[in-house]
Design goal:
Layout (H helix, E strand, L loop, with lengths): L11 H4 L14 H15 L2 H11 L2 H71 L25
Length: about 160
């Protein structure tokens, strides 16, 4: 069981040195007293000291549960990062080993098809020039009569 005991200070002058003490003769604003307290604390201790002092405030069971949760979260992120990295590696290497040769072969096939079309167009142009019903007149001195195609009866 805890016994609460009120302790009163015997020396009134030493209570004036405390930043929390308020004497009736001095009327400071709360902002001034807070700034004086924070400047005194920041000069004497650093952030590590303040965090290490929390060990005494937080109960051991709570510290243990926080520690286990943080370690589980860290291990989860590490494992998921490793799995995601492996998946990215597999996809990338598969794309390079399968997709790149496939893309190159499709490009070569498209070039071959374009060349075949060009050759067909050249052959058709040559046949049109050599055909008797072409747009060009026969050269002078040639006695070739133009041949007509099949003429339906009645014309």
């Amino acid at each position: 069981m805890v016994k609460v005991e009120i302790v009163e200070e015997k020396d009134p002058q030493s209570s004036g040195n405390s930043p929390y003490a308020s004497s009736s003769s001095s009327h400071h604003s709360s902002q001034e007293s807070i700034s004086s307290i924070s400047s005194e604390l920041s000069a004497e201790e650093n952030l590590y000291d303040r965090i290490s002092a929390l060990v005494d405030i937080v109960p051991p069971t709570t510290r243990h549960s926080i520690s286990t949760k943080v370690s589980k979260a860290a291990s989860f992120f590490k494992a998921s990062g490793k799995v995601i990295g492996n998946i990215v590696w597999v996809v990338t290497t598969s794309a390079l080993l399968v997709g790149l040769p496939l893309a190159l072969s499709l490009e070569d096939e498209a070039k071959i098809v374009a060349q075949e079309r060009e050759m067909m167009a050249q052959q058709q142009g040559a046949q049109q020039m050599l055909s008797p019903g072409s747009a060009y007149p026969p050269p002078p001195g040639s006695n070739q009569a133009p041949q007509k195609g099949i003429v339906p009866p009645g014309f």
